[in-house]
Amino acid sequence: MALSSNIQTKSSVTCFIGTEVTMGTATLAGGTWNKAPLMDFSFSDDSAGLTVAPFRTDSFGQPLSGGKHLNEDRVSEVSLTMKGTAATINRICLALFGDDDGTNDLIGSLPDVKQYKHGVANAIPVTLLFDDAGMNGNDIYFTSCLCTSMELSYGIDSDGGMLKCVANFTTGYKPAQGTLTPDASTDMGNAVAFNIHDLTTHTYDSQDLLIKDFSLSISRSVTKAGANPDSNYNPFGYAIGGYEVTGSITCKRDENVDGILDNDSAGQVLALSDGTFKIDAPKCMVDGASPSFDDSGFSSSIPFRCFYDDASISNSIVKITTA
Amino acid sequence: MPKYKAKKSYKELLYSENFCAYGSASTHMKLMDDIVIERDVPSALLEHLTEVKPKEKKKVEK
Prior knowledge:
The structure holds two protein chains of two kinds. By secondary structure, chain A is mostly beta strands. Chain A has one domain. Chain A has two helices and 24 strands. Chain A has a 19-stranded mixed beta sheet that branches. Chain A has a three-stranded antiparallel beta sheet with strand order 8-18-17, with no helix packed on it. In chain A, strand 9 and strand 10 (139-155) form a beta hairpin. The mean pLDDT of chain A is 96. Chain B is elongated. Chain B starts with a strand and ends in an 11-residue tail after the last strand. A three-stranded antiparallel beta sheet of chain B has the order 2-1-3. By secondary structure, chain B is an alpha+beta fold. Chain B has one domain (3-51). Helices cover 19% and strands 15% of the residues of chain B. Classes of the chains: A mainly beta, B alpha+beta. The A-B interface holds A 90, 94, 97-101, 103, 105-107, 109-113, 121, 123, 312-314, 316 and B 15-16, 20, 22-30, 33, 35, 39.
């Protein structure tokens, strides 16, 4: 057996997000594809964990029969770090909670799609295709991925202030290696990414903050529900959990920060805007702020969590406007 | 911006026909909860929504 001459490098990989029609069936070449403006990525290989039998009391070696691959629990995780353009944010919001019209309002009653079953029509799962990233020199694609989290973040002194969008996905389906080439795609990177230097509104609880770093994360659990041993241990479905919306502000420590730290469990308004990109969270609570004693002046780190107003489950938790 | 409420027929639309198909699951959920929405609406959905107009003030004759 000769050594393979294939090599794999990040610079030769392109990622496409495909909109699926039926759960368990990868997006066809002629389907709807979005090219992701990747800055970084990672994915896991098709490798199930190992479970092992306990030791016999009078034996100190592990017999072969005691080891079993736990294919039932096998999942693949995919992480995409992308330019924070309007198209990118809209597409990930669609995968995470069903909005992509530029208002992207995560309300208390979402998601509307709560059931994920193999073989049933569903436009929420996506196919993630990595061109030229298969071990055999072909492509690798992950079928019926559900978005588990999105983090939007930017900082004054990092990456030129550019907004980054990190999206994490999971799938219970076996990754496929072969050739899959979208007939056409929309490049989500054909636009200027939002930038922290453009912020004109930056208030929390009506206090104007000089923000150095900002991040917002929306996450939920996705669990493989059942595995079909007759079909590569692919899932019969997924179980999804509720959304947790958290974030962090790092800003100059001053009397405006003092005005925020009430510890009264009352919902406070977060409002960020550059005129186009806006984050509005009407009911936030600070979750353990702390100072840092930088040589360039003290700053405050303000972690927060977003809620919806109990008056109606249709009230907004966070709204991410991109247009 | 016009305001709308869902008719019964809206609530019977398929996923591929309701507001989810137009990229706004949040608007769909609000309509399903009989909440008035304030936004532009795709023409295909107009027949399934009722426009909510502001009440006209009665003129009081002196």
